[in-house]
From TrEMBL:
This is AraC-like DNA-binding protein. The keyword Membrane does not apply. It comes from Granulicella aggregans. InterPro entries: AraC_XylS_family_regulators, DUF6597, HTH_AraC. Keywords: DNA-binding, Transcription, Transcription regulation. Gene3D superfamilies: Homeodomain-like. GO terms for molecular function: DNA-binding transcription factor activity; sequence-specific DNA binding. Residues 168-268 form the HTH araC/xylS-type domain. The keyword DNA-binding applies. Pfam families: DUF6597, HTH_18.
Length: 300
């Protein structure tokens, strides 16, 4: 198997940004051969900057490719349709948002981004290109983190109108429920109508309440497996703890949202640069309140 050398550094954002941003991550990957990384279902979007080789993005099951750009805004994902490939050194910097962070900070309806990656300048304007230039000139990860914090704090102070504080809290409850109740039951508990809940969920989270709960259940199962120190914990136990009716329902979702069986997908994610961050449980209130240590990983 090819050897892949990875430098990975990850940290939490400024405390004021943590309701909107989960973490910042910087990766430098030197593949010994073509690198392939799975892209699986997840809540929330990301902003990614590339400073070296660009990924090639084949669409799974087809002969088509999606374009990559030095700056990308990537929306939520509900099923595995892409994988990332690279045949040269990759250096990237990622802002991983909370499920509703892009909408709250930038006012962009998340439904327009679901399953898509959009060139950042066309979406966010000149300020993001200026940030990209400054990030490229920065010499260290800590310097880049300061620049990201400054940029996003300006967005927070200039454009955040608490426009969705009530709805973000309500939709967080929907995601945490992970399908235990029907949309009608959830709407009643939130003192709204099912139609209104559906509309706001599409606008803010980029997916319906049912899909959001299903993706949340899938990600929760992955994180439980990652967090388990007991190697004997079975997928049946994880399925029940995550809210699945049985293991077969879990397997079905893993094939749709992850493109592989549970065991195979866990191995794929753990074997690739930074992809295992998906498996790391978040701290209380979905924030990453403690910085990650820098890591260097070699895969033989």
């Amino acid at each position: 198997m090819e050897r892949v050398d990875v430098d990975l550094a990850t940290t939490a954002p400024h405390p004021a940004l943590r309701p909107f941003v989960r973490y910042y991550s910087q990766r430098r990957i030197v593949p010994g051969d073509d690198l392939q990384e799975p892209v699986t279902a997840r809540l929330g979007g990301l902003l990614e900057f590339h400073f070296a080789s660009l990924y090639r993005i084949p669409i799974v099951g087809t002969d088509h490719f999606e374009s990559c750009a030095p700056m990308l805004v990537v929306g939520p994902i509900t099923y595995r349709r892409l994988q990332l490939t690279a045949d040269g050194t990759v250096e990237s910097l990622t802002v991983m948002f909370q499920p509703f962070g892009i909408y709250e900070l930038f006012g962009i309806p998340t439904r327009l981004l679901t399953e898509h990656a959009v060139e950042a300048h066309s979406l966010l304007g000149r300020s993001i290109s200026q940030l990209y230039d400054a990030l490229g000139e920065a010499r260290s990860f800590s310097s880049r983190v300061r620049l990201l914090d400054q940029f996003l704090l300006r967005r927070l102070s200039s454009s955040h109108q608490m426009r969705v504080s009530h709805w973000s809290q309500s939709l967080t409850f929907v995601a945490q429920d992970r399908g235990a109740h029907t949309v009608r039951e959830l709407a009643a508990s939130l003192n709204t109508s099912p139609r209104q809940l559906e509309r706001r969920s599409l606008e803010i989270a980029g997916m319906s309440p049912q899909t959001m709960a299903r993706v949340a259940r899938f990600v929760h199962a992955l994180r439980l497996k990652r967090a388990s120190s007991n190697k004997r914990v079975t997928w049946t136990e994880i399925a029940h703890a995550s809210g699945y009716y049985d293991q077969m329902h879990l397997i079905r979702d893993f094939r749709l949202m992850g493109g592989a069986t549970p065991t195979a997908l866990t191995h794929q994610l753990q074997s690739h640069h930074g992809a295992s961050l998906l498996l790391r449980p978040s701290a209380k209130n979905s924030d990453l309140s403690e910085p990650f240590d820098n890591q260097r990983v070699s895969r033989q």
